[in-house]
Hints:
By secondary structure, the chain is of the alpha+beta class. The chain is built from eight helices and twelve strands. Strands 2, 7, 8, 9 and 10 form a five-stranded antiparallel β-sheet that branches. Strands 4-12-6 form a three-stranded antiparallel β-sheet, with no helix packed on it. The longest helix is centred in the first third of the chain and has 14 residues, at 7-20.
Amino acid sequence: MSKPITIGQSHNVISILANNADWNALANSGDALQAIIDHPQESGEQFTLFLKNSGKMIVGEPRIIPIDRTAPFDPVKLLGQGWTIEEQDERSLALTQVNLANVWLEHMLNKGEDWITGEEKLRRLKKANSIRLDAKVFQTLWEDKSLIPEAWKKKTKGNAAYIFFDGTVLRDPDGSRCVLYLCWRDGQWRWNYYWLDSDWSASDPSAVLASI
């Protein structure tokens, strides 16, 4: 069993980093610093990996991935006749590459909530002004699964995480609104869609970027 870090050790690490950081560069990185404040758990996990790697940048896993916008996402090709695109996040459609290191997984639950409807989650995402990654980003990751971040395999409260791409809202042949997702289950990546009028929990986060 690993030993807990002592207060003295934590102060020593902070002192070393503080005395050697490029504060001029950090002063111009307000958005990045705010992202750390807004997402303490994910930032802590990334910092832990950084420390485990002896304070070196972690390399090897793809981070910046190109998005081919010359061929738009086709719901009929993926899902069949009768499927249409209902709405899309135009800011996501403008992206020709995505830095996966800047992607956050947001469930949008408020304190004390165990679930909300997908439509309510979508309203909150829009209000937060986050860039909701679209179906073409989903397609890029699905067609080359080696690009999917390892962190997305992590379970939430013992449940597999269903990573949604709300930047593209689809309508099925019966008229229901749906969103595509990726999920690591039974040792492999899977995909499917889920209805926005259903209940969504902390295990159903959306892949988003900070607004630009």
